[in-house]
Amino acid sequence: MLVLSRRTNESIIVNGNITITVLEIRGDHIRIGIDAPREISVHREEIHAELARANKAATGSRAADVARLPRPGV
Cα–Cα distance between 62 and 74 in angstroms, integer? Predict the structure, then answer.
């Protein structure tokens, strides 16, 4: 893991096209701004974990569930 120190209004560039800027530091909280291309998704860690769980649950179809799906043209 790369560890960097930044002050308010200082930035970090990732991969040449993602800018992470420290917007505010207040106590043990920090506000950051992330400027990234639209095709790159940016989520908080807990949101990312929830999306991964939901995607995994959505792919867990059972044969009985698939058999109940309507068939085209029937």
Answer: 22
Query: Can you give the residue ranges of every domain in the chain?
Result: 10-59
Structure tokens at 3: 């560890």
**What are the tokens at 52?**
């991964």
Residue percentage of the chain with pLDDT more than 90: 69
pTM over 0.85: no
Q: What sign does the dihedral 31-32-33-39 (CA atoms) show?
A: negative
Q: Which of 32, 30, 1, 29 is nearest to 18 (CA)?
A: 32
Sheet hosting strand 11-14, strand order edge to edge: 11-14, 18-26, 29-35
The angle subtended at Cα 17 by Cα 22 and Cα 45, nearest 5°, is: 55
Q: Which token pair is 22?
A: 């420290």
